[in-house]
Fold Major facilitator superfamily (MFS) profile domain-containing protein.
Amino acid sequence: MAIKDKENTEAGYGSTGRSEALNSNVESVQNSTYKDLKATVPLNDADDHNARALTNFQRFSYGVGHVLNDLTASMWFSYLLIFLQKVDLFKNVLAGNLMLIGQVSDALCTPFIGFESDQTRGIWRLGKRKTWHLIGTFCVMASFVFLFSECITCSKAPSLAQFVYYTPFVVIFQFGWAATQISHLSYSSDITPYKQERVTLQSVRNSFTVIANLSVYGLLTLLFYLDDVGSGKDSDDISPDDAPKFRNLAIICIGIGVLFNFIFYFGTKNCNAADNLSNVATERPGENSIERSSHMHSLMSWRCWLKQHQFYQVAMLYMSTRLYINISQVYFPMYLIETIGLKKNAIAIFPLVSYVSSFVTSLLASSINKFLGRKTTYALAVGIGAASCVWMYFIEAKSNQVFGCAVLMGCAGSLMLITSLSMTSDLIGSNVESGAFVFGAMSFTDKLSNGIAVLLIQFFHPCTNCCPACTPYYRKVQTIIPGGALVCAFIMLLSLVPQNIGVRDKRHKVMEQIPSVYQSTTNGICSLADDGDDDDERQTCKSPIPPACDAVTHRAEVYSHLDKENGYMNGHNGHTRHRLLHSDDDEEEGPLLGTLNTQGVDIGRIS
C-alpha cells in the first residue's frame, strides 16, 4: 500500500502530488527564461534606445560594400549607349537590344540568386550573404572592362558580329552585379533587426553610391581634359578616338571597387539570418521573461510572399522608383548633347551636379524619414521629381537652367530610393530568412521594366543615327517617361497609405493544445504514439516541415492550467505541446511552428 501511495505521489495523481506538481509548475513559469523562444520582431523607433547599435566602422564597411556595383552601374547606365553608338558606331536599335539583354539577364538572375542566397550556408565561414557577394565580385571583375573596350581582333567587323562578341560579357557582368546587389541588400536585414538602424545603413549605402557616381563623372572629366591637353585639340564630339578613355575609366572603376569590397568583407561581422534571429532578444523595461519569450515571428517562404498583396504594392513602388532614376540617368547625357546642344564634357559635369545634390540629400534622408515618416517623405520626393520633369521640358538650348534641373533630379532620386528600400526592409520585418528573395523579386521588376523601356525608346527613335529629329525626341524621353514612372509610384503610394507596411494580411490564430504532436528542436515533426497505455509512449520524428506563412501571434498570455478531470498537469510528463497556426477558416489547419517546453504551461488568448 505504501509503495502504491508513493507511486501515485511521484506520478502526481495523489492530492499531495497534485499540489506539489502545481506549485512546481507555477514556480517553473515564474522563473523560466524560455531560451527556446527569442524576440525576433524588428523593434520600432521607440525601442532603439535599447538596441545594441552598430559601430561607425561597421556602418562604413557596410556602406562601401556596394561601391563596385555603383561604379559599374554608373558607367553602364550613363555611358553604355553613348559608347556603343558613338564609339562602336552601333545603330540605335542594336545598342538598345544589347542593353535589353543585360537587363533581362539581371531580371532573371535576381530571383534565383535571392532564393539560393537564402538557402545556402556559405563558404570559408563568410556566411551565405558574403559568399554570394564574393561570387558576384569575381564575375564583375572578369567581364566589365571588356564592355567598354573595342572588340579584340574584331573592331572593324560588322556591328552584328561585335554584338555577338559583347553578349557573353554582358550576361556574366549582369549575373555578378545581381549577386552582389541582392546579397548586400539582404545583409542589411541580417546584420540588425532595428528599423531605424536599417534606414541608417541604407542612407550610408546611398551616400557611397553618390560618391561612386561622382567619382565616375569626375574621372571622365579628368580623362577628357588630359587628352585635350596632351593632343592640343579641343573636340566637342565623342568619336571612336575616345575609346581608350572609356576603357581606362572601366579599369579604374574595377580597381577602386574591388578594394572597397574587401573592406566590406573584413569590416563587417559574418552572420546569417539564423544568427540574427537567435541573438536579438532584448530586455525591455517592464517586461518579464515570459513576456519577452512571447514575442515570436512567423516564417515566410517564397510561396508565402506571393500571397501577400503588400509584396506586389511595394514591388511596383520600387520598380517605379528605379524606372525614374535609371531612365533619367541613361538619357540625361543624350538630352544634354542632342537637345540642349552642350559640349561633350557636359555629360560629366551635369551628372556630377546631380549627384552632389543626391549626396547631400542622402545625408539628410534618415532624419527626414524619422521626422516625416516613410510615406510623407516619399510623397515629397515624388513632388520634387515631378517639378524637375516639368522644368526640363521647357528648357531652351544652351540654357544654364539645366543646373537647377540636375539638382532637383538628384534630390528626388536619392530620397525616393532610400525611402523605397526602407519600405522594403519594413515589408521583410523579422522574416530575414527569405529577405534575399524579396529583394531579388523587387530587382526583377526593376531590371525587366528598365530593359523594356530602353528597348522601346531605341526602337521608336526617329532616325538611325543623329538628326534634327533627335532634339525633341530626347526632350520627351527625358521628361515624359520619368514623369509617367512618378505617377505610377504615387498611385502605389496612395494604395499603401491606409496600411501598415509589414503587417501581414492573414489573421493570426492560436489553436487549442494538441498533445499528440509537437515540433522537435531539429525542426522535424515528432509525434507520440499512444497505444492506450500512458507508460508506453513511443516518440517518432519525421522529416522537417516547411516554414509557415504568418503562423504565430506576436504576443500571448501564458498561464498555468490544471486538468481537473484527470487530476494532473496537461501534457505528457508535465510538458505541454501546442500547434500554432493561422487560417482563413476554422477548419483549415496550418503547419506546426513550435512548442513551449515548460511544465504545466498553456497558451491563452491573443493580446
Observations:
- DSSP finds 18 helices and nine strands in the chain.
- Residues 118 and 248 are 37 Å apart (CA to CA).
- The mean pLDDT is 72.
